[in-house]
TrEMBL record:
CDD domains in the cross-refs: LolA_like
Biological source species: Photobacterium proteolyticum
Keywords: Lipoprotein, Signal
Protein's name according to its UniProt entry: Outer membrane lipoprotein-sorting protein
InterPro entries according to UniProt: TP_0789-like, UCP028205
Domain Uncharacterized protein TP-0789 residues, every copy: 75-251
Signal peptide bounds: 1-24
């Protein structure tokens, strides 16, 4: 008799949990949530993104780099390396195809998605990928998330799976502020399943709109390394089609970009 009573209590408890999870699901679709989250990072289809990237080792600033990224629809972007030590370098990404262009070489160098991720501030992180276009999302749960500075916020947790082989990361766990869908935290996993990086997003204002103004990346493969990407300018800019041609880029310095 006691066993029957315990069984009924357990079933009731499970039903209550399931009922809570169903009711906790957001009214919007996951696709709508991701579109809104992306708008805090890029609010136009074609944009110019000016970034300052600070590289830390054991919390000591090692170096600062500068990049200008031009994005347009269909997962196409051009990264122009602006720091003196990298001057003249460019990275072109057209869907799942990637080229590195060096200032003293007349030939574009084809690279793989994994090579795109090399370095503390990988081009995959700088190029501001869009979650709604590059990933298939799934709602996981609502919960209270503790922030690094001891505060807490209610969030929706999503799990994202790459739609294409060229996505920067195979899987992303994403926490978005409940109600606003502002991105709070993300953990990024390689195709091997290994946790590569953990990101925290900084809320601020740009052009009188709430925006992601910085992203802090903690390297989980090399824990002593940290990268802070400050988005100094994001403006609607559409480059001419010729700039998305690797042959054109290899013959021209495009120093004015």
């Amino acid at each position: 008799m006691c066993n029957v009573s315990n069984f009924k209590q357990a079933v009731g408890f499970l039903i209550s949990i399931l009922a809570f999870n169903v009711s906790a699901q957001p009214e919007k679709s996951v696709e709508e949530i991701l579109l809104r989250a992306d708008q805090y990072r890029l609010d136009s289809a074609a944009a110019k993104v000016v970034s300052e990237v600070q590289l830390y080792e054991n919390d000591e600033l090692e170096t600062t780099r500068h990049y200008t990224v031009y994005t347009r629809p269909e997962r196409e972007s051009l990264v122009v390396f602006k720091s003196k030590v990298e001057a003249g370098q460019k990275m072109l990404m057209l869907g799942d195809n990637y080229w590195l262009l060096m200032p003293k070489s007349r030939r574009p160098i084809r690279i793989t998605p994994m090579q795109k991720l090399l370095g503390e501030a990988s081009v995959g992180d700088i190029s501001t990928l869009t979650w709604s276009a590059d990933y298939q999302g799934k709602w996981v749960q609502s919960l209270e998330l503790k922030l690094p500075m001891s505060e807490s916020v209610m969030v929706n947790q999503l799990e994202l799976t790459a739609k294409t082989s060229g996505a920067s990361y195979q899987r992303i766990e994403l926490w978005l502020e409940k109600g606003s869908d502002f991105p709070i935290r993300a953990t990024m996993y390689l195709r091997s399943g290994k946790l590569a990086k953990e990101a925290w997003f900084t809320k601020g204002e740009r052009n009188a709109r709430t925006s992601v103004v910085a992203m802090t990346l903690h390297d989980r493969i090399q824990p002593s390394k940290k990268t802070v990407i400050n988005y100094q300018e994001i403006s609607p800019v559409a480059l001419e089609a010729k700039y998305y041609n690797p042959a054109y880029l290899s013959r021209n310095t495009v120093s004015g970009l």
